């Protein structure tokens, strides 16, 4: 039983080149094969092996992924024997690109060792066969012929491991799919108004401690417990983000009659703000509503957003920039939206009494707000020292655990 050599075998490689062809005289019915391996000795051994097979014609050899891809473009081989470990990106890259530039080519992976992750990586890249180096010549030829006719082939050395690994991967995929479906079901339940509660955190006049408004904060009842921002992000992944936001807005609005005379502040992404359903939901109480636009994500079209916000303003809605100083391009965001209120993020408020940088940035925001006739609200006030510093800087309104914690209405 003839085997092609291991990497240490010494062979004459002087005649080896990328334009090598063998067996042209046998006609067009031969299987046209490309060899890609960074070991010259192995390329020679494989070329010698294939030269003795009447059914196979070698159309070229390559020493790295780039050469293999270039040869695939010009030669359009039927089968490519591709080394798993080679320069210029390795076997997975070579396999993907060879299939892209020569869609009819069937790729067989070659490896010097049994490596389950490598097997899986090559199969995901499009390989339909996998041979361990040192495989008998008869099995190499059989593998080439088998994949040429639409089949697949794995060396016996890797079959047991790959079957076990694939079974485990399929089980993991199944578990993840079931988890995704369960999370989507939960989100759909929240959108329907089930399992959602609204907490309200007072916004106060820092000088008098009078409550001037409340911010509505969604809380989701589901096990295991997850923060609200994770549920909103999950809803976006399931293309239910706007629906979930609107559901929480409607639930917050239902509590408005029990909140006193102050305004109600609701959080909205720019996607929700663009929805016509938001204006419908705000309805006759629009003049008591502040819509907070988060700045944690980029906005592609400020013109459309401005048009939507102007339509809300025409109904009496005020617009706030939420988390200023913490997210995406604060100043540009503020300039483009022209808000009525800018909410200074807790990342600036925390320890502002001892941090010169935070004080300087907050002071700059206050100066800008004064010039633009914008109201500043400081978030996350948690100590008397922070409160005193904000008052000294000229901040009039704020919220935070030091002033009042979020609470559910009873």
**Strand arrangement, largest sheet?**
7-8-9-10-11-12-13-14
Q: What is the level-2 CATH architecture name of the largest domain?
A: Alpha-Beta Barrel
Q: What helical percentage do the residues reach?
A: 40-55%
pLDDT below 50 for ≥5 consecutive residues: which ranges?
A: 1-27
CATH fold annotation of the largest domain: TIM Barrel
CATH class division of the largest domain: Alpha Beta
State Rg. 33 Å
Q: Please write the string of helix (H) and strand (E) elements.
A: EHEHEHEHEHEHEEHHEHHEHEHEHHEHEE
Distance between the termini: 84 Å
Summed over residues and divided by their number, the pLDDT gives a mean of 85
Compute the number of helices. Answer: 15
Description:
By secondary structure, this protein is an alpha/beta fold. It folds into two domains: 24-165, Response regulator (Rossmann fold), CATH 3.40.50; 195-408, EAL domain (TIM Barrel, Alpha-Beta Barrel), CATH 3.20.20.450. Helices cover 44% and strands 20% of the residues. The chain contains 15 helices and 15 strands. It has helices spanning 40-51, 65-75, 90-101, 116-125, 137-148, 156-191, 228-237, 241-254, 270-273, 276-282, 302-314, 330-337, 346-349, 356-372, 384-393; strands spanning 31-36, 56-62, 79-83, 106-111, 129-132, 153-154, 196-205, 211-220, 263-268, 289-294, 318-324, 341-344, 375-378, 397-398, 407-408. The strands form two sheets. Strands 7-8-9-10-11-12-13-14 form an eight-stranded mixed beta barrel, surrounded by four helices. Strands 2-1-3-4-5-6 form a six-stranded parallel sheet, with helices on both faces. The longest helix is centred in the middle third of the chain and has 36 residues, at 156-191. The radius of gyration is 33 Å and the shape is elongated. The chain starts with 30 loop residues before the first strand and ends with a strand.
